[in-house]
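ok so dumb question maybe but i'm new to this and my supervisor (M.) told me to 'just get the structure for DNA helicase RecQ' and walked off. so i did the thing. is this what she meant?? sequence i used:
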Amino acid sequence: MNKSVSLTEHLQHFFGFDRFKGQQEEAVKSVMDGKNTFVLMPTGGGKSLIYQLPALLLEGTAIVISPLIALMKNQVDSIRGMQAEDNVAHFLNSSLSKAAISEVKNDVLEGRTKLLYVAPESLTKEENIEFLKNVKISFYAIDEAHCISEWGHDFRPEYRRIKPIVEEIGKAPVVALTATATAKVQHDIQKNLGILDAQVFKASFNRPNLYYEVRPKVKPEAQIIKFIKQNEGKSGIIYCLSRKKVEEIAETLQVNGIKALPYHAGMDAATRSGNQDKFLMEEVDVIVATIAFGMGIDKPDVRFVIHYDIPKSLEGYYQETGRAGRDGGEGQCITFYSYKDIQKLEKFMHGKPVAEQEIGKQLLLDTVSYAESAICRRIILLHYFGETFPGNCGNCDNCLNPKEQGEAKDEVVRALKAILEVNEKYKGEHISNILIGNKTAAVKSFKHYKLKAFGSGKDHDERYWNAVFRQSMIKGLINKDIENYGTLKVTPQGHEFLENPTSFMLVKNHDYEEEEESAAASGAPSGATGGDPALFGMLKDLRKKVAKRKNLPPFVIFQDPSLADMSIQYPVSIDELQKIQGVGQGKARRYGKEFVELIKKYVEENEIERPDDFVVRTVANKSKMKVFIIQSIDRKIPFEDIADSKGVTLKEVISEVEAIVHSGTKLNIDYYVNDVLDDEHQEEVFDYFREAEDDSVEKALDDLGEDEYSEEDIRLMRIKFLSDMGN
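this is what came out, is it supposed to look like this??
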């Protein structure tokens, strides 16, 4: 049976393949010879065959420890599909009824079952341990073994308990399998399972057919819809970090005519597995999911994997992107990146044990350096897994569109000096303000305008300095103290750099902080979705004219994000205008006629093909909340009471009210404002907005004085002003 000929014959007999792939044959032999075996092969490399074939050939039952019920079901179905008898493979987990469990146990005890899949949680149950003591076990296979390691991207504490339980049930060879592990994770797995003597089989991590791209997270929904419509009928997965975002994106895709379904651990099991099956059976094209989806999903023709949120680690990223193009065909991996997302992930770490924070911080730093790098994405990814890759791959955004870099040695020196001058006690944002000479409230109150560093970097803007901080962090010159709210510290390497500055190439053209709001608020159409600058300029001029005629500040008519969106979507009717960001029915009817006429004329004169299908239709899931707020305001209910009854904060209620007013609905909030501010203060703020160039709350606070007004005061008066004057 050990002769390679007969192994190939068995392969043909059981699986219908006429030859092994890569190192499969050697690994199968290692398992057949009863040796501890460690298998590290990328997704699609054929890992499961390495334990399935020996399990079918050896005497006894192989125990396969697997982390997900969906994954087990998938594997069991595929083995049964190749065998004459269903009882050749079973799973034992919490989803089974009592009758089903006794049937499974019976088949195992009578030797009919060659593979028994169990979840680590089921393995720890006393009754299962006792049952397995009576079974002849051929070997234990631990699938998705990276779950054992705290450095692995999917750490599961119950995986740490596998070794003592296996010893209690009865010793047998151990096979550990994973599709992603750095040297550190590999050692951790082997040590924890007590298989440091294992034969190791490691395949290359390079997947030449996968195209990697990182895009700025500007209007990601619009970009995703546009991308999917250009790849009509292809299968794809979109990953989001939160369940809420999964639901939102799935709904947005559905209302835009895309066959999509959500998948996350918060859904009931039947819906979840139903959605997964529809994706596998190609009844839907796109699944929107948290990372709970996809482990072991054996769909070979997934053509794209989109990350709406950047993953917490490069291992997670590699594993998830690896689900594209498993058949060797096209696989597009597109990731949306905004540094704000990284800051959110850092906030989650706050308050966790220091050791966990250190690991999390390092994993995030690797992700940031991947996202912001100008070099070939493959070089970075493969280096992370301890593999070298020569030269450019020609199949990633950095190779196909090289990024511009500029010398920033002097700037890095200025940044490090500023950090030291404030005794390493402040965040990057504050230090940026010092460098550009921006007298914010904080800079004033700490008297930091008296520092040597104040204004020493006014030749650049805040975004540039933020890029300097981040890329200095990637190079190890500074680090961020998460425990102390993200204050910046200079590392020993940073001190060395100050003493002896060397060349520092800064990657340019990174608008990676530009999330939707900031891109639009900067007064320019968001670059990533290709707004039309000429039209944007014309719309601004028209807005100025209308504002002058109506004796209102321009921002009351339409805000910049709305104009930017018009310059992308080209709405040519009042109906289409209502779908533009921040424009509701009221505003479209009141001010829209001239804008729509201007756009129509512009489109005709320039023979522009309008992206009808890219007008992103939004889901009115917030409408219930809006209706509730409007009704409550009509009944003169205080904002605090509205917030309490909906379980949200006062700030969130004010944001909702702002959105209602921005889209053209008139609201009378005098009853509430009169409680908060006296007439004199109200008049002062009202007059301020009458003359203001824009509706910035920060600027208003700066000009009117933070000791006089709170942020809420200004926002409430801005709502009153917009409602009274504009709607």
